[in-house]
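Translate sequence into structure tokens.
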Amino acid sequence: MNPVEIIKLKRNKHALTRQHIDFFITGYLEGKIPEYQMSALLMAIYFNGMTDEETYFLTEAILYSGKVIDLNFINGSKVDKHSTGGVGDKISLILAPLVAACGIYVPMISGRGLGHTGGTLDKLESIPGFRIQYSIDEFKKILSETGLVMNGQTGELAPADKRIYALRDVTATVENVSLITASIMSKKIAEGADGLVFDVKIGNGSNLPDYDLSLKLAKNLLEVSKKFGKKAIAVLTAMDEPLGNKIGNWLEVEESLEILNGINIPDSVKVNNVLCGAMIYLGGKASSIEEGEKIAHEKISDGSALNKFYEMVSVQSGDLDYVKDWKNLKRPAYSKTVNAKSAGYVTEMKAIDFGFAAIDLGCGRKKTDDELDYLAGIILNKKVGDEVKQNETICEIFAEEESKLFTAEERIHKAVKFSDKKPEPKKLIIDILQ
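Result follows.
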């Protein structure tokens, strides 16, 4: 087969066969197809889409580019969750230990930041020493002994996705339903979970802002899960403003610890508890999602979720003293307050712009080899619906280089809008599909 002909087929809106897709993925992994040709195919898919059959073939090709973990030796439910990406979305850090504290095994393969959205692995690596690369045997051992493991995509698991994921990030080909479905499902099937809960973000801060496309993605994820014999639930959640009060790698770990210590950050806690409720229900520890929500609340209240988080940090070689010292605020060299230019009610805090402002500060990558500033970020003092006086602080921004503060500040001012009238509250949990 000829890679150019395959690119041309997709450019001209034709469906690719399983053989076309297998050939291209295998050739790319073996170095026979260069990155510029893979980029061209990704852009053709981005513009012309894929059929449901093509999406399944792509998922299959990426999945079987590596090994699939067999967790049948573990006598218990194995359930994982995946978010399609948002700004300030630190839910995995709270949810994984919480669900594990319920006696459900959580085998979590996570990713890095993608586009303007943060990545779980980057947040975990803000904990000094935290290890996120384990072999399959190590992954299985930690999971069976601890009840959870939060791992990166090793060379053994969906290696094609790891490389394609990084390429999509820097070629503006993130926001496509088929590419997102194949990326998510290849990792999730590879990790060996029985059940999957998907947090599908909708709004300007998501990777798929369009409601219809997000709904299609949710349905695709459920359909592909079914084809692979997995139980699944999709929760559609709002991502028009940042989730929680903190954006940035360590800052989001810090907010997770606040929540695990019983501090109520309403939007983060609500999303966390609904997703946990769905996982606890799929794991057979609750008769409904609502009952699972109540159990999630209890596991935070009794401290067992926090203890499980500490156990995970310790087992995965993280500096536990550094984590337990979270109240002794760790901040970079420079900070600045962003103050309101006018008075009124906050009607908009455009999540996508806050995401890019966080990248400006050093929280994310503009190129694949960029180094992160783990302590950089944004702390929100106000949220949508809050009343603000002129010159009152909207948020604080932090960076290791002072020049970065001014670029981020300018972007944030454009992202925030005010009105004389208090806005109607929007639904945080938009829908739940099973």
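Note: The two ends are 40 Å apart (CA to CA).
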